[in-house]
Amino acid sequence: MAILIPSAIVSVLGGVSASMGFGLAMGLGMAVTPVSRPRQAALLVVLGAALGGLASWAGSTPWAIAVLIFVSAVLFALTNQRSAGLLSLTPIIVILFGPGPIDLSWWAAVLWILGGGVVGALITRLLKFQAPALPVEKRTAWEHGIAVGILCAGIMFWSLAFDIPHGYWIAVTVLMALRPLPNQRRETLNGRLIGTFLGAIIALLAVLFLPVWGAIIVAVLCLFFLVWYSMGGAYLMQALALTPMLLIFASLGDIERGFELTIERVVFTVIGIVAAVLIALVLRHWESRREAASD
């Protein structure tokens, strides 16, 4: 309820886009607070707000979004050395606030992200949520960040330059599935694939059989679960929550569009998983060479 009530209030005050952005920012605030000092957490939320504002300003400009994606990847390479996934939501924020479904002016994006981040941090402090720090070795963090940044920047540039509808879902899949810690990669890849398929089914059923207000409730609940499971590292549940949220908000009241988006989502997820597996193999090769050299 502590998460749902603020999102519902924002939805009434600012609309669906504001609610989605606010909810994502709450997730950011809740992710950074348990493993950061207050000033550090505030700085990370401000960085998220800056990226979201710039993404809203850039819109669907290919080079600008590609640059922002790469910058966000560099930032999470830096922060992963503190704890894995600390800023993993920032490239997602860039995608959703830029070419994605969140339609806000740059200043509104900044304000809603700052507000959501603050509320998320307060909820974390008040309810005493705990999360262990999982630091990533420096070289591993940089290899992961640079590889993911280059790949996702390229995907975003390609999808926007060639006007590929919802091509950004490929990048979202890579970002969510390819974790910086090597021992988590198989779990996240499997969870991402299974969660997306199940989430697509949930979204399709909601669009087909529920009135618009009912589908919105399902989407808001999915946003709640996305924020909640982002803190705990349940990757299947994260994908299971993210997919219906995106599909429902993008196809409200349009059954035919719901079918189209579901098919697109599944296809792009499979492509993203393949890309993530290839990058994971490259990273594993680098790690093996480094281990062999140290022996």
Summarize the structure.
This protein is an all-alpha fold. The chain has one domain (4-294). The chain has twelve helices and no strands.
Describe the structure.
It is found in: Membrane. Pfam families: FUSC_2 (PF13515). The protein has helices at residues 4-14, 16-32, 38-58, 62-80, 89-97, 106-127, 138-161, 168-177, 185-209, 212-232, 235-250, 255-294. With 295 residues, it is mostly helical. The chain has one domain (4-294). Helix 1 (4-14) packs antiparallel against helix 2 (16-32) and helix 8 (168-177) crosses helix 12 (255-294). The chain is globular and about 60 Å long. The N and C termini lie far apart (52 Å).
Count of discrete alpha- or pi-helical segments spanning 4 or more residues: 12
Order of helices and strands: HHHHHHHHHHHH
Radius of gyration: 18 Å
Number of strands: 0
Helix-strand category? mainly alpha
Strand content: under 5%
If you average the pLDDT, what whole number results?
A: 85
Helical residues, percent: over 70%
Span of the ends, CA to CA:
52 Å
Shape: globular
